[in-house]
């Protein structure tokens, strides 16, 4: 059985960037790495002669250099933690009430958490600049200790260049060193970009849905004004990142081939989401609520039936989640030998 409903609000073109809180994966780029590391596209060639465009090649070389200079390490000094606060304000545009303060970062470190930062030398002054960070908490459920990824932010001029992916895979390495087997976080189910990154690039699975997780007063889409959201609920999906699973291990080694490592089984259910959620919320809040309730109902029904979300299909008109029978995921979810 498949549930396939087309969104009542679709337009041509890809989904625009939006910004969310808790785990900010709309701000991370795909694991394929920097576009500069790929073969030049047709836009880098001379249209008449089929030659490489020198200007574009110079730009790509500069980008290569910028990415090579990035160092991932823990933020420990007060100055580095202050930079995390600054980056939250710059990237998310959140009010101070929603920003995780320095005190929170310090206390969570003492309680077993940590904040990994992406640093780059800032021009001729050779001063380091924080261009991204991921904040990781220690979490407990019964006798299990696992990781909880509270947030990630990447500076605007470094987005879509692989910084987010490097932070997440560094987070995995650090968590494995501490003996952790999994990391959890949440994201807005209506954000296609987040869904693709989490499910297809990182290899998470989802089997839990939370209604209005942060309350309807929470700024679900901080790029919009509070009045634009009109009480849209802050529904969330819970990512389950099994760090030692065969699929995650394969993605960690061969991230550029993520699409080739997709689940081979046929989806039992597909859940379509609006192609341009941010625009829908801003221009037609009543319809946005209807669509959110539909998506919520379909996820809850699927999860109640034992299905697991493990893939996402991008589309400019009908992006959709792919859900599978749990038995079809047993091998890929099993620990790597």
List keywords for this structure.
Aminopeptidase, 10 helices, globular, 337 residues, three-stranded antiparallel beta sheet, alpha+beta
Looking at the structure, the CATH topology of the domain at 21-39 and 54-187 is: Aminopeptidase
Q: Percent helix among the residues? A: 25-40%
| Widest sheet, order of strands | 1-2-3-4-5-7-6
| Stretches with pLDDT under 50, minimum 5 residues | 1-63
Helix count, DSSP H or I runs of 4 or more residues: 10
End-to-end distance:
34 Å
Helices and strands in order:
Blueprint lengths: L53 H15 L2 E4 L3 H15 L9 H9 L3 E9 L4 E15 L2 E11 L8 H15 L4 E6 L4 H11 L2 E6 L15 H4 L6 E7 L3 H8 L15 E4 L4 H7 L1 H20 L2 E7 L6 E6 L4 H4 L4
Parallel strand pairs: 4-5
Antiparallel strand pairs: 1-2, 2-3, 3-4, 5-7, 6-7, 8-10, 9-10
Helix pairs in contact: 8-9
Kindly describe this structure:
This protein is an alpha+beta fold. It has a domain at 21-39 and 54-187: 3-Layer(aba) Sandwich (Aminopeptidase). The protein has ten helices and ten strands. It has helices at residues 54-68, 78-92, 102-110, 163-177, 192-202, 226-229, 246-253, 277-283, 285-304, 330-333, and strands at 71-74, 114-122, 127-141, 144-154, 182-187, 205-210, 236-242, 269-272, 307-313, 320-325. The strands form two sheets. It has a seven-stranded mixed β-sheet. It has a three-stranded antiparallel β-sheet with strand order 8-10-9. A hairpin with a 4-residue loop joins β2 (114-122) and β3. α8 (277-283) crosses α9. It is globular. It starts with 53 loop residues before the first helix and ends with a helix. The model is unreliable at 1-63 (pLDDT under 50).
């Amino acid at each position: 059985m498949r549930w396939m409903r087309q969104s009542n609000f679709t337009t041509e073109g890809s989904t625009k960037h939006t910004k969310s809180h808790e785990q900010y994966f709309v701000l991370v780029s795909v694991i394929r790495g920097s576009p500069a590391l790929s073969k030049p596209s047709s836009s880098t060639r001379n249209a008449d002669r089929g030659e490489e465009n020198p200007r574009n090649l110079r730009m790509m070389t500069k980008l290569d250099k910028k990415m090579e200079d990035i160092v991932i390490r823990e933020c420990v000094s007060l100055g580095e933690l202050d930079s995390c606060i600054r980056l939250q304000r710059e990237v998310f545009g959140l009010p101070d009430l929603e920003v995780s303060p320095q005190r929170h970062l310090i206390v969570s470190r003492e309680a077993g958490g940590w904040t990994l930062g992406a640093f780059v030398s800032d021009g001729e002054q050779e001063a380091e600049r924080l261009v991204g960070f991921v904040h990781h908490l220690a979490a407990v459920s019964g006798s299990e200790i696992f990781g909880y990824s509270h947030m990630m932010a990447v500076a605007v001029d470094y987005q879509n260049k692989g910084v987010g992916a490097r932070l997440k895979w560094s987070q995995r390495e650090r968590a494995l060193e501490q003996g952790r087997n999994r990391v959890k976080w949440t994201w807005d189910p209506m954000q296609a970009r987040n869904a693709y990154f989490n499910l297809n690039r990182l290899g998470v699975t989802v089997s839990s849905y939370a209604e209005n997780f942060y309350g309807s007063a929470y700024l679900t889409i901080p790029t919009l004004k509070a009045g634009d959201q009109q009480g849209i609920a802050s529904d969330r999906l819970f990512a389950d990142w099994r760090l030692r699973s065969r699929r995650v291990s394969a993605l960690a080694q061969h991230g550029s081939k993520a699409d080739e490592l997709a689940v081979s089984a046929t989806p039992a259910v597909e859940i379509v989401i609006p192609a341009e959620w941010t625009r829908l919320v801003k221009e037609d809040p009543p319809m946005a609520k209807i669509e959110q309730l539909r998506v919520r109902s379909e996820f809850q029904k699927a999860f109640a039936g034992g299905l697991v979300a493990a893939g996402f299909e991008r589309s400019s008109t009908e992006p959709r989640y792919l859900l599978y029978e749990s038995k079809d995921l047993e091998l890929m979810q099993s620990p790597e030998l």
